[in-house]
Amino acid sequence: MNISRKKSKDTSTLVFEGDFTIYYVAQVKDEIFADYEKLADKIALNLEGVTELDTAGVQLLLFMKKFFNSVHRSVFIAKSNESVESVLTALDVQSQFAMES
After folding, report:
1. Contact indicator for 14, 45 with CB cutoff of 8 Å
2. How many CB atoms lie within 10 A of CB 64?
3. What Cα–Cα distance (Å) separates residue 80 from each residue in 30, 36, 38, 71?
4. Which tens digit of pLDDT belongs to each residue from 13-27?
5. Dihedral, CA atoms, 16, 83, 55, 11, nearest 10 degrees?
């Protein structure tokens, strides 16, 4: 799993590429939260490059949403793919990550 960051004036975009599964959630969590203070008030998730998403990955996404809301930052999915959307829909959590443009 590779994660890159892009920052514009008021939005930080986290770009995920690769498998977002139980085997990588610890790495993803460490990378995101190591310096989360540097992220903007709006955090866009680009999941377009995610090749596999399992329930551990979804659980981390939900944790990120809850944590960042607690520190007054918003999290939304900016880009996704059919595979990711099908998992979020199957688990009935897609509404937690309303798509924004």
Report:
1. yes
2. 21
3. 22, 22, 24, 25
4. 999 999 999 999 999
5. 30
Residue with tokens 């949403």, as numbered in its chain? 65
Supply the pLDDT for residue 101: 45
Q: How far apart are CA 48 and CA 99, in angstroms?
A: 13
Predicted TM-score (pTM) of the model is: 0.92
CATH superfamily of 2-97: STAS domain (3.30.750.24)
Q: Tell me the one-letter amino acid at 77.
A: I
Q: Do residues 81 and 16 touch, judged by C-beta distance below 8 A? A: no
**Which pLDDT belongs to residue 98?**
74
* CA–CA separation, 44 and 87 (whole Å): 19
* Percent of the chain's residues with pLDDT above 90: 91
Instruction: For residues 80 and 67, give the distance between their C-alpha atoms in angstroms, rounded to a whole number.
Output: 21
Tell me which residue of 85, 42, 87 sits closest to 65, measured CA to CA.
42
